[in-house]
Each structure stands twice: as C-alpha cells, then as structure tokens.
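Let's practice the habit of predicting before peeking. Look at the sequence and jot down your guess about where helices and strands might fall. Then scroll down.
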Amino acid sequence: MTVSPIERRARSFTASGTAPADEPNPTLFVKEHTVVTVYVDNYRCHATVGRLTGRWSHLTADTSDELHTFAARLGLRRAWFQARCRYSTCPAPDGVCVHYHYDVIDSMRTRAIRTGAHPIDIRDLGALITARRTAQRPTPAAT
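Done guessing? Here is the structure:
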C-alpha cells in the first residue's frame, strides 16, 4: 500500500501546536476491507454558528463519498456538508468543489480522531486541496 505524503505526516503527529495535547494516535477507518483516509485539521477557529459557539476545524477525506460515510458514523447531518466555495474558478464537477468538508467543533474533532481520522496541520489541508485541484484540471491534448 502506498502512503501519501500527507498521510505519512499525519501519522507522525502526536499533538499539534494548537490542538489538545491528549490527541490519540490515529487509526485507519476500515469498511469492507477498504482503507478510507479521513483528515481533520487543527484550524480551531473560534466562531459562533447559530446557537453553537466553539473552535471549528475541517473534516475532509480523499473522496466526498468516503467523507459522507465517515461523517454518518459520527452522526453529522448531510445538510452540514460544505460542497461549494466562494471561488468562481474552483473546479466543481458534479457540483462539489475541491474544498469540500464538514465543519466540526473540538469535541467532534476529538471523536473523529478516535474513530480514525488523521489529524493534520491546516497547511496540509491546503496541500490536499491543491492536489485535488491539480487532479481535476483538464490535461492538454497531446499534439
């Protein structure tokens, strides 16, 4: 099995600079013998959304289908899925842009890690999005 640079770095985390120091070591979420790679960043931005105030991070995965499966295990509503972004140049096949994610507060972030999400740095999330964008760009026709 090939390990991506982001996954390799995520496996090396024991605690990030801004995340709680008691983060458990990540494990892989396995469904029907398929390894699903889910990530949760350490953004932890303080915000109030509706009646909920907390520190918010981003939960994402290699594919939106993997993300939905994992989010359902955590009890997250599909309506909370962030599928579109504010950038008009963002590639969005099937209406889902490369920035897709769920926003989660610290308690859900900890649950996600315990369930198998890999904790990553916010900069690694940027690298993951850049890789998605590159993969979705049309390749020039060979001449």
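How did you do? The radius of gyration is 15 Å.
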